[in-house]
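One chain is below:
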Amino acid sequence: MDLGLKGKRALVMSSSRGLGLGIAEALAAEGADVLLTGRSAEALAVNVDTINARGAGRAHSFAADLSDPDSASALLSAAAEMLGGVDILVANTGGPPPGRMADADLSVMAAQFDTMVLRVMQIAAGVVPGMRERGWGRIVTVASSGVVQPIPNIGLSNVLRSALVGWSKSMSNDLAADGITVNMVLPGRIHTSRVDELDGAAAKKSGKTVEEVAEASRATIPAGRYGTVQEFANVATFLASDAASYVTGGMIRVDGGLVKGV
């Protein structure tokens, strides 16, 4: 299937590692030009070199910390300069510290809201006008299965990522007639360094080993294993493509059957 991504321009937030990097690599493999972002200029440079060595789409990078109030405008300026515009926005952010919601520090929650929610809205607001002019655009937000089935011990993540659910659905209704689709993709237990961090935190809290925690986690997944970054990136890339032109306002789970609800 031709996904129609050759020559499309994608801004992929928080793409120095993990899910964001996987999506950037998958988009570039389909011929899209991608702008990678993250806090580590060194990691971004390595990733850009790796993607460009493969051919197909070209990669660029811009280092930015989403906790900086000026990061949205800086990223939008970089995208205009390096890509010439944005056809695809992959809205991805890091996660907040783990812990129970009942014990959460609300000042941390407020700061994380700026980074994880407000920054996504600001960047989207900056790219939508160009998408409207061209009559084509894709916004794919990476959230978590916790927005449909709250995950124990990551209360702040459950709350803050859920804030993007109403935003994404509202945006999809507002933009569908302009040729712009807006969807969310929800990872379950995809094997990334972030999942390893969460398993480590759970192990420390429970007194178990990290492998015992991971084994118990895998036992709750009907597929019997953690997913791969490539499996997740394949779904996000489809949602960003021409082939998904009539898919909007959705929340697509990539979780191996982890979520128990229908």
Remarks:
- The two ends are 29 Å apart (CA to CA).
- Residues 53 and 59 are 10 Å apart (CA to CA).
